[in-house]
Design brief:
Strands 1, 2, 3, 4, 5, 6, 7 and 8 form an 8-stranded mixed beta sheet that branches. The radius of gyration is 31 Å and the shape is elongated. By secondary structure, the chain is an alpha+beta fold. It is built from 9 helices and 8 strands. β6 and β7 form a beta hairpin. The protein folds into 2 domains: about 130 residues, no CATH class; about 130 residues, no CATH class. About 45% of the residues lie in helices and about 10% in strands.
Amino acid sequence: MPLPFSGFGGSASFKIDGRVSPPGDPGPHGDVRGVSPRYFETMGIRLLRGRTFTDQDRQGSQPVAIIDENLAREYWPQQDPVGQRIRNGNSSPWSTIVGVVAPVRHSQVVGEEASTSGTEGSGKGVYYFPLYQENSPAVFLIARASGDPAALTGQMRAAVHDVDPTQPVSDLKTMDERIALSMGPRRSAVALLSVFAVMALTLAAVGLFGLIRYNVAQRTQEIGVRMALGASRSDVLRMVLGESLRLALFGVAGGLIAAFALTRVLSTLLYGVSATDPLTFAGTAVLLTFVALLASWAPAWRATRVDPLVALRYE
């Protein structure tokens, strides 16, 4: 019974009763999981149609299987798969599908674990068979706790040893720990990208500050003439900030276009949000515009303090 994010498990092709695959086509395929009757309840996987496994689904009884919604949508898009028959290989008996469950990710939280139909955000299709109807060389024991799950470690070891003292018990982890291990490389990449993003934002703010300050210095005489002709300090402030805003908007527009072009690269590092999430793009644009205005405020304020007589003599 491969546990999600355990590094174990595999996929295999299977046959659907009444369908013949064209020559060269490997046929339907999906991940394979052998599970016990209360696996879905323990893992919080919702039953969508049919039933889950029971203690009566064991060797000698009718072979049964459960598929997830991804597999149902992919190979039975216009019909109910419950009651259909599948089998793994030519020598295996036909198994009747008795239920459909909600899809879950098994190998990684984010990244390329998509169905063959390419459905965005979906996991790979999975079909489950009763653990009691097959012999498995390795078994994962799962326990749901109402308190701290880490506190069950000793009790689980003792329970296994009470049944078989020679049975080794290893790799005891909570699901949070397994998910954290799966997310580790991507979290490191995201943290590194975040550092670079902060550095880039800081450099952009410093660069804009220097550019606006230089621009104000170059236009000192013009500002003096405007103020001598009656322009108020608020007029000068609006002029300088308006130019800063135009520069910022041009830069933000170019940055958003470049970011949109890189969405396919970023999609492998994101979870719970689309790489083209409009709220993220809008929030980034607002943040960068605010930083630009903040960086240009000091040069703009200095421009309002220019003495018209001094400015007219400035070279």
